[in-house]
């Protein structure tokens, strides 16, 4: 059995403690070079942690013979399922203090087996943590309680098939444990795609996307996975069921809406009918530089409020632009991209560039209408974007405190919100560490009525104190978001880390209804305890 969830058809092994493939992590020399850019970091990287060094108690529960073929207590597998992939998780693993390690990991292959595992766990007082790719960045896949007899990580990645394709209706029935590439590989021969590409695409699953309401690469329009859902099948401790496949329905509150974003606390999503698209044949992209960030925000608002609907409309502030190599002269950079399966997109790009220039944007030579961008800033940004999680882990090895958080707010609040986050989070980070901190911002998704700013914080930590420092930084960030009535998360989900912010954000009657749903569907409180509702 591999050391971590599927390497999806490759022989490469996944890192149990860090992002992605173990062989893709920066080596010591690269870590040291990165650390030199952040004053106060360590002289040498922390060693790569070893599972053999973890203290791992024996499983606190013995499964019945009928289920043993689905379960493993292999230490490598247990360690790989102990946490998600936030900075908080990476540094705890590096320090040899991961969260509570699950007693057992189960890999069911169908609904019946999921249901049998839930029945057994309910009878034994075992907490069940649904686990897709384990890419949660909000403490969504770890157990932090002490009221359950044992913890079972329910890994869905053996349920990874595209079961049916409805070509006429352009939709497919897909098992929830399919990792992004596994799912797309099965759709490709049919000329269709789900075309949902979160940054974590390679190592996250359809079920995880649905359970967290993930945000994909579309910057406008269909930004969240919700927009592609036709129906869901869910197994709960109280029974299983599927919603009808419908193109749209006005029949009362949507059953799918109850499980989208339910983060494994109400049931296990086992499959979904998903709306597909033809593969795009026409693409065009360009970047535009701005001297000031405010005019750039205005340009983005104008584009978001037009009917141009760019697939990519990422605004990078000067720090982000520098980090990704998109600019070296202190400019903010707007990356624009258009795509279509049916018609050329050059005119739409030209119109967006016109709007950007009307707000002071410079440059913006459109690429040819093809896949690889001609624009150097667009290319630079794309390659750093995909490598970024590996670099973050390298910086963590150098003792840096470095992670991201994201939000969304209406346009009337966006500029002041971004300023307040930069100032207040930057000063909280410096205060907590005694080192200068950087807080960079980009807009990942934009809407006619608002935008989703995404922040990256980097500061040298104090050895051994990194988790507390990050928690202080996150608390300062949550305070600002709450004050500006900006959501605690636009797409990273709530998990355990965002519970306080989520509790403040949701209306009381809704909390009552959620608690009632939890009572009805999970009466023994075994599913992902501590997430969304107690
Ligand atoms: C480097 C990096 C980049 C990221 N980029 C993005 C991004 O671009 N957009 C974005 O939205 N998020 C992003 N994330 C966050 C994360 O990838 C998403 O939350 C993703 O949707 C999680 O999918 P997963 O399969 O890994 O789920 P997991 O991490 O395994 O689980 C996430 C949550 O869903 C629950 N769950 C998982 N599967 C099921 C199921 N079948 N039924 C019920 N509950 C289930 C879990 O219990 C947990 O609460 C990123 C994370 C990292 C580390």
UniProtKB/TrEMBL annotation:
Binding, FAD? 130-136, 263-269
Site (Important for enzyme activity) residue list: 314
List, separated by semicolons, the cofactors it needs: FAD
Q: Which InterPro entries match?
A: Alkyl-DHAP_Synthase (IPR025650), FAD-bd_oxidored_4_C (IPR004113), FAD-bd_PCMH (IPR016166), FAD-bd_PCMH-like_sf (IPR036318), FAD-bd_PCMH_sub1 (IPR016167), FAD-bd_PCMH_sub2 (IPR016169), FAD-linked_Oxase-like_C (IPR016164), Oxid_FAD_bind_N (IPR006094)
Q: Does the keyword Oxidoreductase apply?
A: yes
List of catalytic residues: 454 (proton donor/acceptor)
- Which positions are annotated as binding substrate? 392
Q: Which family does it belong to?
A: Belongs to the FAD-binding oxidoreductase/transferase type 4 family.
Name the chain's protein: FAD-binding oxidoreductase
> Mind giving the lineage of the organism this protein is from?
Bacteria, Bacillati, Actinomycetota, Actinomycetes, Kitasatosporales
């Amino acid at each position: 059995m591999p050391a971590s969830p599927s390497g999806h058809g490759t022989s490469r092994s996944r890192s149990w403690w860090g992002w992605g493939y173990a062989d893709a992590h920066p080596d010591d020399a690269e870590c040291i070079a990165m650390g030199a850019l952040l004053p106060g970091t360590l002289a040498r990287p922390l060693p790569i942690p070893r599972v053999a060094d973890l203290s791992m108690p024996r499983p606190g529960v013995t499964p019945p013979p009928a289920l043993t073929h689905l379960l493993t207590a292999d230490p490598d597998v247990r360690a790989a399922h102990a946490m998600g992939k936030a900075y908080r998780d990476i540094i705890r693993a590096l320090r040899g203090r991961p969260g509570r390690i699950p007693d057992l990991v189960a890999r069911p292959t169908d609904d019946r087996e999921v249901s049998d595992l839930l029945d057994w766990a309910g009878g034994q007082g075992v907490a069940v943590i649904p686990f897709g790719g384990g890419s949660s960045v909000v403490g969504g896949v770890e157990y932090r309680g002490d009221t359950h007899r044992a913890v079972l990580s329910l890994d869905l990645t053996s349920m990874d098939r595209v079961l049916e394709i409805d070509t006429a209706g352009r939709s497919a029935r897909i098992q929830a444990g399919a990792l992004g590439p596994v799912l797309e590989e099965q759709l490709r021969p049919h000329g269709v795609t789900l075309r949902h590409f979160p940054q974590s695409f390679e190592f996250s699953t359809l079920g995880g996307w649905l359970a967290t309401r993930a945000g994909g690469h579309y910057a406008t329009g269909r930004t969240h996975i919700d927009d592609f859902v036709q129906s869901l099948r869910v197994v709960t401790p109280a029974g299983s069921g599927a919603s009808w496949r419908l193109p749209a329905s006005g029949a009362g509150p949507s059953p799918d809406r109850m499980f989208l974003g339910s983060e494994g606390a109400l049931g296990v999503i086992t499959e979904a009918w998903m709306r597909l698209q033809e593969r795009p044949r026409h693409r065009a992209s360009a970047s535009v530089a701005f001297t000031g960030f405010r005019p750039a925000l205005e340009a983005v608002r104008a584009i978001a409020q037009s009917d141009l609907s760019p697939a990519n409309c990422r605004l990078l502030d000067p720090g982000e632009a520098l980090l990704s190599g998109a600019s070296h002269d202190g400019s903010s950079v707007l990356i624009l991209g258009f795509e279509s399966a049916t018609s050329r997109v050059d005119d739409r790009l030209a119109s967006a560039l016109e709007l950007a220039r009307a707000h002071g944007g410079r440059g913006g030579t459109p690429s040819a209408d093809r896949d690889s961008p001609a624009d150097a800033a667009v290319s630079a940004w794309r390659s750093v974007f995909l490598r970024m999680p590996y670099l973050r882990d390298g910086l963590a090895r150098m003792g840096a405190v470095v992670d991201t958080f994201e939000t969304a707010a209406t346009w009337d609040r966006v500029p002041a919100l971004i300023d307040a986050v930069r100032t207040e989070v930057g000063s909280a980070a410096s205060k907590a560490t005694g080192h200068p901190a950087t807080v960079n911002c980009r807009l990942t998704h934009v809407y006619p009525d608002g935008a989703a700013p995404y922040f990256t914080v980097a500061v040298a930590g104090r050895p051994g104190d990194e988790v507390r420092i990050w928690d202080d930084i996150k608390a300062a960030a949550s305070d600002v978001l709450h004050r500006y009535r900006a959501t605690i998360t636009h797409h990273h989900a709530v998990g355990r880390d965002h519970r306080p912010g989520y509790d403040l954000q949701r209306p009381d009657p809704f909390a009552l209804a959620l608690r009632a749903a939890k009572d009805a569907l999970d009466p023994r409180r075994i599913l992902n305890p501590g997430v969304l509702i107690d």
